[in-house]
User: Fold this.
Amino acid sequence: MKRTILLLILVNNFLLLWGQEEAVYLSTKEIKVGQPFMLRYELTYQKPQKFIVRLPDSLFAAKIVHRREDPFGVPFNGLEVLGVSDTTAWNQSVGLWSAELKLVCWDTGTLMLQPIPYWLDGQEKAFSGALITSTLLNEQTGRPLYDIQESYSISNTSKKQGFKPLLWSVSVLSILFLVLWIVRSRILRKQNPPAPLNLRQEALKKLANLKRKGLWLTDEKNHITQLSMLVRWYLSRRFNLNLTGQTRNSLLIHLQNQGMDSSMLAELTQFLERCESVKFAKIHLSHEAHEHLLDWVASFVEGLQENEIHGTND
Assistant:
């Protein structure tokens, strides 16, 4: 009798394990610095199973490779989570869990997205990681989703077939909604086309968003990292250089060769030193000091634009 019960438990666990189907999708494999992209997770499991997952809400765990000599990469804190949403749809005893994460990268290089752990009936598993490339070039839109994870077929064929009509209905409704949204967007764009932002306006908008978050109150190191990366991104776009991955001395030499004013170089040096002291020496700044750094970045962007205008007039 005990052997029969044990055999039934083993068979049930095997069927539950075989019946799950997981997948990971990316909206693109080549991203642009500062351009959001989507990451999607899907998992199909049966109702008796207990599913637990913890999705990141601030920074996504990743490693970055800047050089070929470092194939395993180094920890990267510049992959920000802009939004997270998840839902579960049930068809009798079969559930389809899906989650979408909106991410943005603040540096160039090859990124290795780390696996996301989850628990199914107390057993720890993980969604697979992903490999993407981040550049300063414009991203080509309209690419399909890439499946980067193999899937496992559901052993219960009748339940899988019963789930298809629901998926078809959701797909058709999603396509109709997308078509209506595209048509409406084009009509509104023709009626009132938005004025494109120039580089100065775009940089000041990003700075205002960072200031509004008030991240230095809860995660000072992350805030300083994003602030210094914003300045590097602006200088890279302004002088058509890749300065996001450069050291402080290398960055200053490049800007000196571009003819940047010596006083602005001196102020930029002090700013970078202050940021590095927080990131690496674990020095804590006061609230007023953080406000001063934010105001300085705004005046630096304005001042660089002013010098550009004066130089043109001369």
User: Anything to note?
Assistant: Residues 221 and 280 are 9 Å apart (CA to CA). The chain has a mean pLDDT of 80. DSSP finds seven helices and 13 strands in the chain.
